[in-house]
Structures are given as structure tokens and as C-alpha cells.
Amino acid sequence: xxxxxxxxxxxxxxxxxxxxxxxxxxxxxxxxxxxxxxxxxxxxxxxxxxxxxxxxxxxxxxxxxxxxxxxxxxxxxxxxxxxxxxxxxxxxxxxxxxxxxxxxxxxxxxxxxxxxxxxxxxxxxxxxxxxxxxxxxxxxxxxxxxxxxxxxxxxxxxxxxxxxxxxxxxxxxxxxx
Length: 177
Ligand SMILES: N[C@@H](CCC(=O)N[C@@H](CS)C(=O)NCC(=O)O)C(=O)O
Fold this sequence. Notes:
Bound molecules: glutathione
CATH architecture of the largest domain: Up-down Bundle
CATH class of the largest domain: Mainly Alpha
Oligomer: single chain
Distance between the termini: 29 Å
Number of domains: 2
Number of helices: 8
């Protein structure tokens, strides 16, 4: 389903995801999973052989989860305010501008704290990198990223050029420069 045309707000889709948001995952037994982080963790648990996160007791897993959760829980609300400022008040231009600024501050904070090189866990790709790379492409930030948040820009490029991810990336985004 595409959000063009606001199909996500239709009653039929809201019966599956009452928030009217993408993504939604439906498991083979019919279990509905909403919230991107819950979806990613569900997929990681169901496909441990892929190694999308370190094992449960490994501190590296906690590090990946920290930055992944911060990105999803703090950046996504900014995306919503930027994409749909009318929902949040009568001055959409300033709501959008503040959301864009806040998202930039959060990205810089994550870059500073996580110090990705190129990934959050160094050479090891994890779910944190997928979340940070995708969220770095939204809100018209492609031009801002290279000069203001080069570490996340490099992370996004490393994700985008990963052989098993590059085709999926190219379906949605340009190659980060
Ligand atoms: N908390 C949700 C947020 C999802 C979200 O905001 N998705 C956007 C697309 S990237 C959406 O569906 N927006 C449409 C809308 O808010 O009407 C998650 O983490 O999955």
C-alpha cells in the first residue's frame, strides 16, 4: 500500500492498524505487528541466522538497541509533524520548520553518541543502521546530511551499497553521495 492519496487513513486499513500508519506486518498466523521497531525486532527474532543484532547478553546489542530506539521514538514524531503539520496546530509552516530542526538535532546527537564507523557496531551491520539510514533520507535532508551529519551520511552510504541491500535501497532512494 502507498501513502499517496492517504490510503492509510481509510477505514479498511485502520481495522488492521488503528493509527493509520505504515508499516504493518501480518505474521503467517494472522498476528498483526505495527510499529517499525517491533516489526524489525520480530523479524530479527524469527530469522536469527541473519544476525541482525548481536546475542541478547552482548553489550553490543544494547548499544544497537539504544540508537535504534532513539531514532525511531524521537525522529518518527518529527517526520509526522513535517509531513502532516496541519494535524498539530494552526501554523503549519512553523510546526514543520521546528520538526525539521529537531530531527536534525537528534541526528547530530546520535552521530556524536554512536560514532558509527561505518556502522553503529563498527564493521558489523545491525538493525540500528537500517533504521538510521532510512530515517536519514526523509524530511528533505538529502542535501543537508553530507555537510552537517557526515557520519550518518557515511552510514547511509554503507547501508545503500551493501550488496544484499543495494537493490532494495535503489527502489526507494538515491545513492547517498
Ligand atoms: N510509530 C510508527 C510511525 C509510523 C509512521 O509514522 N509512518 C508514516 C510513513 S513513514 C505514515 O504512515 N504516515 C502516514 C500518516 O501519518 O498518515 C512506527 O514506528 O512504525
